[in-house]
Amino acid sequence: MSISDYLIKPIQRITKYQLLLKDFLKYTSKAGLDCEEIEKAVDLMSLVPKRCNDMMNLGRLQGYEGKLTSQGKLLQQETFCVSEQDERVLSRSKERRVFLFEQIIIFSELLRKGSNNPGYQFKNSIKVSYLAMQDVVDGEPCKLVLWSRGSPERFTLQASCDSIKNTWTETIGTLLDAQNNFLSALQSPIEYQRKEGGISVTRPLSSGRPPSAPPTPNGHAPPTDNEQDDQELVLVQSDFVAVREDEISVFRGEKVQILASNQQGQSLVYRPANSDSPAAEGWVPRSALNKH
Question: Which run of H or of E encompasses 84?
Answer without folding.
Answer: strand 74-86
